[in-house]
Amino acid sequence: MEAKFYTLFDDKIIVCNLCPHQCKIASGKRGICDVRYNSDGLLITENYGKVSSINLDPIEKKPLYHFFPGSVILSVGSVGCNLECEFCQNWEISQNGVYNFPYLKNYSIDEITNYVLSKKNNIGVAYTYNEPTVWFEYMLDIAVKINESKLKNVIVTNGYINEEPLNILINYIDAFSIDLKAFTEEFYKKITHSELKPVKDTLKLISKNNKHIEITNLIVTGLNDDETAFEEMCKWIKNELGENTVLHLSRYFPHYKCTIPGTSLKTLTKLFDIASGHLNYVYLGNVMSDSGSNTYCDKCRKILISRQGYQTEIIGLENSGKCKFCGNKIMPDFNLS
Ligand code: SF4
């Protein structure tokens, strides 16, 4: 299928405008994401309709803690990524293209939407597992259908996307789970081979459009656990996106090319305390403890949601997303309408 967002640069050389890499792709070659291919001057989205994983997941696994808590969502992934994080947890699918990953299954748009509608209590579709913006066209075609069915679209993304495609996506996506991997350009350049600024721009644009955002920051020992840079990030989130923006601090374990030992609980707890000084809803993820996973009202401090792993019990929250005890608005309402 022909891809969107590209221009012909010179004699069959293509510039892809989907993400800030703006790859210049010669005929017969692919861009950095390994899934957009120049076929004689035509840009092809090779992973259209190619699914690597499809599962019914708790929404908390995305992670989204303030969006339809306790619900499940059909989660769909493909292959490819426009970043090359050395610690990638899903590198088998993110760092391969269609041509070298033999386990893909074909799903048409109708097959996905029928699957979604057949699953009881499912709130919609999450585009996840690998970076979904690199299968923009397939995701958008599904999202339009899900939107028409009055169900929800959720994206789990690194936020490395250009403004034009993002503006289109925003019309259909209800909740964004965004990886903010660090708060220095140096980290983004060295560890992910990309840039921080476009990710900040993405966050600001989504927030301006009043869409639900939760941010995940994977804390990697010695790479992005500097307390000063971390506090800068928390202040930026508060000032640009608001103090009620949800921040998940996720514990790193060695993966892919990264052999640094797993992040200590001491480091995570210290950063959790710093973040909690600026933001109202901070959570800990990937830890074998339930501390840092419950939701408390930021006004009356009563417990609203208790979580143990992916077991969620709603204790003090109305379906309107308000605290049952003091009426404080905590999150979007969670009625499907
Ligand atoms: S989406 Fe892929 S091909 Fe397009 S600019 Fe980004 S990395 Fe390059």
Strand-helix topology:
Blueprint: E1 6-10, E2 13-16, E3 24-25, E4 36-39, E5 42-45, E6 50-51, E7 53-58, E8 72-77, H1 91-94, E9 105-106, H2 109-118, E10 122-127, H3 136-148, E11 152-157, H4 163-170, E12 175-179, H5 185-192, H6 197-208, E13 212-219, H7 227-241, E14 246-251, H8 265-276, E15 281-285, E16 295-296, E17 303-308, E18 311-314
Parallel strand pairs: 8-10, 10-11, 11-12, 12-13, 13-14, 14-15
Antiparallel strand pairs: 1-2, 2-3, 4-5, 6-9, 7-8, 16-17, 17-18
Bound molecules: iron/sulfur cluster.
Q: Which cofactor or ligand species appear?
A: iron/sulfur cluster
Number of strands: 18
Strand portion: 15-25%
Average of per-residue pLDDT values: 95
Structure overview:
This protein has helices at 91-94, 109-118, 136-148, 163-170, 185-192, 197-208, 227-241, 265-276; strands at 6-10, 13-16, 24-25, 36-39, 42-45, 50-51, 53-58, 72-77, 105-106, 122-127, 152-157, 175-179, 212-219, 246-251, 281-285, 295-296, 303-308, 311-314. It is of the alpha/beta class and 337 residues long. It has two domains: 6-45, no CATH class; 50-293, TIM Barrel (Alpha-Beta Barrel). The strands form five sheets. An eight-stranded mixed sheet has the order 7-8-10-11-12-13-14-15. Helix 8 links the parallel strand 14 (246-251) and strand 15 (281-285). The longest helix has 15 residues, at 227-241. It starts with 5 loop residues before the first strand and ends in a 23-residue tail after the last strand. The mean pLDDT is 95. It binds iron/sulfur cluster. Iron/sulfur cluster binds at residues 16, 18-19, 21-23, 31-33, 36, 82, 134. Iron/sulfur cluster is lined by residues 16, 18-19, 21-23, 31-33, 36, 82, 134.
